[in-house]
Amino acid sequence: NEMGVYLSPDWYDELPPNALAITQIYGYRKQIGSPNEFVEIFHADIILNNDSYDFSSDFAPGTYDLGTVVLHEMGHFIGLYHVNDPFIDT
How far apart are CA 51 and CA 22, in angstroms? Predict the structure, then answer.
């Protein structure tokens, strides 16, 4: 039951190769069909695509800032999503 942040040296074939990172969220839908419907998250992981991209914490040229990418993914980790996200049924 550990939640974590992982650098993946081999990116997943079922994911877009241009994805910088993903957050996997597992949860249960609660109060389904009501105006107060929500998802209770019981597990989430952040996975960074270290196969196609380089990450750094010192703003090195040609790299992505690790802290900024993880901060963005932490928003997903706590249940936030992109506006007009094609993967979310709003």
Answer: 13
